[in-house]
Amino acid sequence: MGGHLSRRYLWDAEAEPDPLHMPSFPAQLGMPARQPRVMVASASQLSDARVPLEQRDFCGHHLVRLLRCQRDNFPVPWGCHALRHAWDSCQHEE
Predict the structure, then answer these.
(1) Choosing a second label site near 43 at 20 to 30 A (CA), which of 4, 8, 67, 76?
(2) b/e string for 33-46 if b means 16 or more Cβ within 10 A?
(3) Cβ 43 vs Cβ 61: under 8 Å
(4) Does the predicted TM-score (pTM) go above 0.85?
C-alpha cells in the first residue's frame, strides 16, 4: 500500500501522472457511441413471474423464461440448460 506514491515521488516521475495536474480530455474519447439500455420485461411481467427484487435488472426477461421453464420441467433440472446459459451470459455482460 502506497507503492505508487513512493515510485512517483522518489524515482520514476514520468511513469505515473501528476495528481495535481491531471490530463484533461473528453470523457467519451475512444468509446463508440453507446445505445441506452432498455428493459425488455415490464415491471408487471416481473412481478407476475415472482422475480425477486434484487434480480429485476436488464436481464429480467431471461430470468422470467428460465423460471417458467424450471416450473414446467420440474423434475428435470437439465431441461433448461440453454436458458440458464443465456441468463448467465447476460448477467456476465452486465
Answers:
(1) 76
(2) eeeeeeeebeeeeb
(3) no
(4) no
**CA separation (Å) from 45 to 50, 51, 63?**
9, 9, 11
Cell 443465456 appears where? Answer: 86
Q: What angle do CA 53, 34, 30 make, to 5 degrees?
A: 130
Say what the pLDDT of residue 89 is.
94
Q: What is the mean pLDDT of residues 48-73?
A: 92
Asked whether the beta carbons of 8 and 16 are under 8 A apart, the reply is yes
pLDDT (tens digit per residue) in 31-57: 777 777 888 999 999 999 999 999 999
**Cβ–Cβ < 8 Å for 79, 69:** yes
